[in-house]
Amino acid sequence: MNIVVCVKYVPDATADRHFESDNTVDRDGVPGLLSELDEYAVEQALQVKEKAGEAGESVVTALCVGPAAAADAVRKALQMGADKGVHVVDDAIAGSDALATSKVLAEAIKKIGDADLVVCGMSSTDGGMSVVPAMLAERLDLPQVTMGSVVEFQGDQFRIKRDGDSATEVIGATAPLVLSVTDQSGEARYPSFKGIMAAKKKPFDTWSLSDLGVDASEVGLSSAWTAVEGTEARPPRTAGEIVKDEDGSGAKALVEFLASKKFI
Fold it and tell me: Phi and psi dihedrals of 32, rounded to 5?
């Protein structure tokens, strides 16, 4: 089984994140790492490989689109157990929206060739749109089983459970397909020392837009369908208000406070 798992390099949530002058996220001046939500995708891809091992050899390729530093996200996936890595890096990609990102990913998947399963996380921690897996399925003309909290498969038959606000759906499809998983799908493994050392010898390709046959005019900030018009820093946290219930008025004061903030 040929498995491609899409991973993203995102700014560290614990760092002092900020925006560039063009209102795009600063990805160079802030430490980055493999998106936590994509670690679950890597884990599911590896589990599929391990469970399908008896039926034949399976290969997991970690695919990332991003700046030079984004190679670290691919390396983390290789350390976890992926077999190959592909990093698409091109200055023209900077500022791309979900539509352009899905196009670059789709062309890279086509170049990798004959993918039986494309695995994605539920969202990116620096964007939160959750639409790229569906866009990938459309571009690749594949069925999609997305937002899976439980993944089951037998042969080329896949089934997921998708938890909604009021019900749980069970969705199935036949591979090849696009799968996305939530953070409830299973705890991601930590790279072992053996895995870290082995990752250094695994195949790792770096591609540009020209390698994929994608015109630079189709991606980037100038081609994005949406744009951030302005940003402002979050105000510093202020001291909270202490309500004392010495005369029995505490409950009323609490209700009034919650109502003023439109929580009730």
Answer: -125, 175
With 0-12 / 13-18 / 19 or more C-beta atoms within 10 angstroms meaning exposed / middle / buried, residue 167 is: exposed
- Residue % of the chain over a pLDDT of 90: 68
The DSSP-derived string for 193-252 is HHHHHHHTTS-EEEE-HHHHT--GGGSSGGG-S-------PPPPPPPPPP---SSS-HHH
- Looking at residue 217, its pLDDT comes to 95
pLDDT in tens, 135-183: 999 999 999 999 999 999 998 999 999 998 889 999 999 999 999 999 9
Category of 213 on φ-ψ map: left (φ > 0), alpha (ψ -120 to 50) or beta? left
Distance of CA 40 to the CA centre of its chain: 9
Query: What pLDDT, on the 0 to 100 scale, is given for residue 54?
Result: 57
The residue behind tokens 């620096």 is 126
Structural contact between residues 12 and 26, judged by C-beta atoms closer than 8 angstroms = no
Find all residues with CB under 8 Å of 240, minimum gap 6, and list them: none
Q: CA 88 to CA 207: how far, in whole Å?
A: 5
Residue among 72, 75, 90 at smallest CA distance from 32: 72
Query: Residue 84 above 80 pLDDT?
Result: yes
The residue to which tokens 């997921």 are assigned: 160
Q: What pLDDT does residue 37 have?
A: 94
| pLDDT tens, residue by residue, 23-55 | 778 777 788 999 999 999 999 999 999 998 755
**111, amino acid identity:** K
Sign of the dihedral through C-alpha 198, 199, 201, 203: positive
Query: What distance in Å separates the CA atoms of residue 80 and residue 162, rounded to the nearest whole number?
Result: 26
Domains of the chain, first to last: 2-223 (3.40.50.620)
